[in-house]
Amino acid sequence: MSKWSVRTLKTVRNIAIVAGMVGAFLIWLKLPWVVKNSSFMHVGNGAYGLKIGALIVIPFPLFALFHRFDKPEIHTDDPAERAKLAEEYERDNLTKQAVTAIGESIVIILLMALAIVLM
């Protein structure tokens, strides 16, 4: 398998984040306005709550943007090798961010879909 470019990985990450947020919002629109609180979904005080409280999970895929590591120290004087190592670091970091964004998007879409099914 060939390595994806940094630009492609950024595009995949951003599409996964937006798709997860939009998908969760569209599913949220199908929730009834008043939700019975249960151990699975609790959106207010008392036995019932408004679906507005479920909006808190929609920006969850944005946490993929915080998946960064300390930059490794590059001990070389060769500019070509330095650029190659920096690009490998960036590609590795973006791969982890893309995988995290895809996973988080799947999780919130499944949670919102289960909330509708269990209502």
Keywords:
mainly alpha; 5% strand; 54% helix; 119 residues; single chain
Mean pLDDT: 88
Distance from first to last alpha carbon: 44 Å
Low-confidence stretches: none
**Gyration radius, to the nearest Å?**
20 Å
Q: Please state the structural category.
A: mainly alpha
Question: Which strand order does the major sheet show?
Answer: 1-2
Write down the secondary-structure element order. HEEH
Assembly state: single chain
Share of helix, binned: 40-55%
Summarize the structure.
By secondary structure, the chain is mostly helical.
Describe the structure.
This protein is mainly α and 119 residues long. The chain is built from two helices and two strands; from the N terminus they run αββα. The protein has helices at residues 6-29, 79-118, and strands at residues 34-36, 48-50. Helix 1 packs parallel to helix 2. It starts with 5 loop residues before the first helix and ends with a helix.
Task: Summarize the topology.
Elements: H1 6-29, E1 34-36, E2 48-50, H2 79-118
